[in-house]
């Protein structure tokens, strides 16, 4: 399928990912607030196997890298650091589009252990899009110095996803992180993420719209989240879904829904 | 179902969601609130902190960003910084001036001794060197005090709080809350402020921030404001010069903020229509800055950088002005001819021809406006070296200045077109000659309007 003028951006980047020399067994997105040591985690995981790719049309450069774990090639994409995914800025839009439309096999959210509350906002927003999420709580060494203690098992229970404490600068917790990514990416563990409950009237409206999203795009997006974004009138997401539709090969768009796997993994 | 059908159905769904939304109220607010609530609850359950500092931060934030204390505190801090700058810079400025103008005599003797022609001495010593000496002695001490203080507040974590306080006002003006941060940068240098506008994502709000950044007096214009405040207005009150002068300069900054808001509002209602976008602003923990690195950064990176730029521009500007002031056409210098043409316009807005000319010739760098002005005045025959505030005052009074002239000079300096460097930066950032021209025309229009209005009012009331 050819690239249309509209479908540069995300799809051009994905195309490039797919063409990379080492075929990826799984694609993992790395999200997180700025200043959480996200890049340190990225560097610690991928070492020197890194490239940067341009996000066409936006002045956002994404770094990607790879590592091997248990005989699988994992490609890691370092998304821009953002506080939210509500698409207030180009960075947030890129991060959101990648998680939603790029359909990474796992999304790792890197959080700062010293100010977890602020970071949890982004975690909860990612969980609204995809359950295939791992929370990496970084800078635990700094938190210890500041006498902040976090109950990680309780956090994992509350969020319904694996939570891995790390100190990427000291290279601690990375093996556990790789293993958790592996478990989620290859479906050995399925998460039951925390669901945000909205005010009653909003929930009712979400229900009505969600039904139709599910009918139009069966099994393709998180219909609840898309419904919520539509109700919020998120113009950039609406545009991106139109782009996504433009990418659908006409022949495949059967009534049963098309099996469009943009990453072409495996 | 073909793709186009799917697209149509999707469009219908978007319409349906829009209809639902109109019945729901502010969806975004409900979403954000639910997210924050959940995050707070989870964090409350799993995070234990023994740290007292965070609580202290919160207490400080409650005061610093409170509705009652927020604004007075900002004003007080601004005034204190300016007062420290003005009163602290006074003596070193005088010392530097003594030193540098003393050296001018040595230079003059040297030129006589080697028998250099008078025009060479004029261009190099009376033009270039004197302009440099003025720029250095007037600008260096205030900057060496202002920049470390400013950097201190920045490192302390106070600036994001200022943005937080002013966010509501800017939102009402249809602008972006982060514009405040770019304005803070503008206090140092407008070109830097314009570049800082990159932190604003929405092109509409970024343009507003770029077009209005000039209303924050940069370090090139602070000396003009301070000199005017000290020379003329501070004297009125007798004793406490520096206090009154600081209050006046602080008032000028506040006026600059008000004009920024007014112009932003106008732009967002006319040329740049739209709704302000929301954003997340991190209020970082307060940190006591490390004095060593702070001094290195503020003195080397900022003070010396701005000073070198000023010097690089002041030297040729000084030489050019000397030539204009000393080359005669008929029985008047070129400078006087030009000033004569501008006299009518200058008088209408409460200035004079020489002042308007100094602002025009000062386009490359605002720092040179006062040296050019003085050179223009002095070339008319009165040979006083402006090596002290009193001497400067004498020169100006001799030219028929009143307090109104000084006020208008402050206002015009605050509001007029940005310097050439800033304009070039705007050209680069907007990629558009159209917006660049507007960035020069708009503030100049405002400056003329304000000065004209004030002058006519004061004259009509017979106050001068």
Q: What is the element layout, followed by pairings?
A:
The complex is a heterodimer of chains A (266) and B (464).
Chain A: H1 10-18, E1 26-32, H2 38-46, E2 50-55, E3 60-69, E4 72-78, H3 90-101, E5 106-112, H4 116-129, E6 133-138, H5 140-145, E7 148-150, H6 152-159, E8 163-165, H7 174-185, H8 200-216, H9 223-232, H10 235-247
Parallel strand pairs in A: 1-4, 1-5, 5-6, 6-8
Antiparallel strand pairs in A: 2-3, 3-4
Chain B: H1 3-24, H2 27-46, E1 47-49, H3 53-64, H4 70-113, H5 118-156, H6 158-172, H7 179-188, H8 190-196, H9 203-212, H10 222-236, H11 241-269, H12 291-326, E2 328-329, E3 332-333, H13 334-348, H14 353-361, H15 369-378, H16 389-398, H17 403-415, H18 420-430, H19 433-460
Antiparallel strand pairs in B: 2-3
Helix pairs in contact in B: 4-5, 4-11, 5-12, 6-7, 7-8, 8-18, 9-11, 9-19, 10-11, 10-16, 10-17, 12-15, 13-14, 14-15, 17-19, 18-19
Summary?
The complex is a heterodimer of chains A (266) and B (464). Chain A has 266 residues and is α/β, with parallel strands linked by helices.
